[in-house]
Each structure stands twice: as C-alpha cells, then as structure tokens.
Amino acid sequence: MAIINFMVYCNARMFFLKLIDVSGHKQSADFIHREIRKVVEKISPELVVQIVTDNGSNYKKACEKLIEEYKHIFWQPCAAHTINLMLKDIGKFRKVANVVASAKLICRFLYNHNRLHDEMKKKIGGELIRPNATRFGTVFMFLQSFLDKKEYLRAWMVSQDWKDNTQKSCTLSGFKPRMMAAIQAMEVQLGIGTRQFDRFLSKVTRRVDNMERNTLMVAAAVLDPETHYKHNFCSKPEYSLALTDAIEKMAQASDDAVQAIKEISVFRECLGRFNRPIARAGASSMSPIWEMNVRDSGAIIE
User: Do 194 and 221 share a structural domain?
Assistant: First the structure.
C-alpha cells in the first residue's frame, strides 16, 4: 500500500492533516501537484510559507509548478532524504562498501542463532542496530552501533564464553550547524586536504548545495539564535544575501521588506535585548519564532 502523508508545521508544532492512498495512481508530477494544491487551498495559500517534500524528480516538478502559481511559497527538499542520498554516494566507495559488507555478515550470523544472539545482548549490553535496505543512512547508524559496542565485542571475542561457544564465527570484522560539525569531524578523521577527505566532501557538498538552493534553509540558519551566537552566520555575505532574498520574496510590498531587514539588523548586531546574558543563555534552550509582518498574515520563519 502506497500512501502520502500531509503534515503541517506551525508555531513550533507538527500536526497531522491527512493521508491519501495512492496505490492505484501513477505518482506523476501532475498528480502530486493536484494533491498538494488541494492542501494549500484548504489551509489558504496566504498562510503557507514553505512546502517540504521528498527529493524525487516528480515532487520537484510538482512543486516548481506550484510555486509558479504562488510566488511567495518556497519549496524545500527533505533534509533527511538529502542526507540519505549523500550517504548512499559515500557508501559506494569500495573501502566503505567492504566494511559494510563485513559488518552485515557478522550481524546476520549473530542474529541467525538464537542462543548466540541472547548471549550477545548480555555481553555487549543491548542490541546492535540492524541495517535497513531502504534507508542508506541506517547503514552508518548500523556501523556506529558496532563502534559504540567495540570494546564489549572485543572483550567477548577473547573470553572463555566465546571460546566455549559452538556457534562462534571465524570473522569479526537534530541542518546547517550540524552539517558543519559533521564536516569538522570528517576533517579530524580523514585529514583536511587529503584526497579521501575531498572525495567525501564532494558528495556532501553537492547534496547540500542542491538542498539549500532557493529555499529557506540558509535564512532559517541565519535567524536561529543559538547558531547566531555560536557561528555568526550574519557576518557571511552569502548567508545575509540568502536572508534578504527570502524576505523580498515573501514581502507583499518593498516597505515591508525594508522594515523586516531593519528589525533583523538589531538581532544581527546583538543590540538591545539581544545583547543581554539571558538572551545568549536562552538561545540554546528556547524555540525561536520570528514574526515579521512581511505579509498580511504575519509570516513565520522558524
């Protein structure tokens, strides 16, 4: 059964709106456009800021057609799906594929023998995350679970319990700042400027650039207080330009856009209340909600 879920995110909360059964339909761009358009009209187009969908070409074409009708609406490719795609690209590297294949072999062996599986849970303090063929990101979560349990697995492999086991085996083998942190971790692990690091980074950069282009993602990162105090994205011209472009697109009049940009400058320069210690302290624990009157409804950028 194939279904499409429609969720609405507003005021820092997610709401389930409806689902449709598309089992008997060809999920063409025209079909998806009609279904999303129905939802937009039901909510009221002037209240919709952004649409987030899968990254498939049919969804991309459908949303491109939709934003031609509603100029103020943005389309944002799904961040989770983008990460899955970049991990799929990285997973094709021979060295990575070999490690994954070995880990799958071990996992399959341990889970195919009930007594051994039960002993494993006791020795390593829980389960290993098992790989899921439909989501590439889970492969790396699967590998991380091996890494997290590495010392326990090693201790088990050299224990008398393992030697005495007749089922033993012969082998053992929350988006922008987080992505920046992930890239920094790659730099440490692979070595900045190395050929291997450049190969991995090329896959990440291509996917991230495609996901961020003409969306609210960068603008949202600029407006996020915690990110602002830590990274000061406002100081980067390309990031500030992305925010300005977003405001201009959403504004119904140039005066509205100018006023919004003036208000944001107070935040950018950490003036007034934004310069108080309590503002910095609360940045990491409070959900930021910006209400700028760039449309009659009061657009919310979160």
Answer: no
Alpha helices in 191-275 (DSSP H): 195-212, 217-223, 225-231, 237-250, 254-268
Q: 223, 257 in Cβ contact below 8 A?
A: no
Q: Which residues are registered as beta bridge partners of 10?
A: 13
13 domain residue, yes or no:
yes
Using the structure block, give the residue that is written with the tokens 């349990």.
149
Are 56 and 99 in a shared domain?
no
Domain count, the chain: 4
154: left (phi over 0), alpha (psi -120 to 50) or beta: alpha
Strands 74-77, 50-53: pairing kind: parallel
Q: Is residue 199 part of a domain?
A: yes
| 10-residue averages of pLDDT along the chain (302 residues) | 90 90 89 94 92 90 93 89 86 87 85 85 87 71 89 85 60 60 88 89 87 79 75 78 83 80 77 73 60 39 32
Domain carrying residue 37 = 3-77
Hey, which bits of the chain come out as E strands?
Answer: 3-10, 13-21, 50-53, 74-77, 290-292, 299-301
Do 279 and 229 share a structural domain? Answer: yes
Predicted local distance difference test score (pLDDT) of residue 63:
93
Phi-psi region of 73 (alpha: psi -120 to 50; beta: other; left: phi over 0): beta
* Cα(115)–Cα(111) distance, integer angstroms: 9
Q: Kindly state whether residue 145 falls inside one of the protein's structural domains.
A: yes
Q: Is the pTM of this model over 0.85?
A: no
Residues 156 and 183 in one domain: no
Q: Which residues contact 132 (CB under 8 A, 6 or more apart)?
A: 138, 139
Q: Say if residue 108 is in the same domain as residue 162.
A: yes
Q: Which domain-ending residue is among 173, 201, 228?
A: 173
